[in-house]
Amino acid sequence: MLETTLWIVLVMLSIAVLLCFIRVVKGPTMSDRILAIDLLGINMIGIIGLIMIIQDTLVYVDVLLVLGIIAFIGSIALSKFIERGIVVDRDNN
Questions:
Q1: Which residues span the membrane (predicted)?
Q2: Residue 93 belongs to what H/E stretch?
Q3: End-to-end distance of the chain based on CA atoms, in angstroms?
Q4: Model pTM?
Q5: In angstroms, what CA-CA distances link 84 with 19, 29, 43, 72, 79?
Q6: How far apart are CA 85 and CA 19, in angstroms?
Q7: Residue 90 has what DSSP assignment?
Q8: DSSP characters for 10-72?
Q9: 39 — pLDDT class (breaks 50, 70, 90)
């Protein structure tokens, strides 16, 4: 029963990834695209976590951590770029 539920959730997350990808390509504003990219990263973390549960292994924990950090830093950097037009502030005092 649990395995069937895990596979159903995996299919649902795959559909969510497809919908997020459509929003990234077709999004009306840049903010929608950034939000879709962030949600895409979260969905990928969920998919990898489900694969870990299905395979009963802890091999992909490092991949989860790196993907989470990259998704977070990427969404922060893109948001800052949209707000100010630059990512890294260099103060020359």
A1: 6-25, 34-54, 60-82
A2: none
A3: 64
A4: 0.81
A5: 29, 16, 28, 18, 9
A6: 28
A7: -
A8: HHHHHHHHHHHHHHHHH-SSHHHHHHHHHHHHHHHHHHHHHHHHHHT--TTHHHHHHHHHHHH
A9: very high
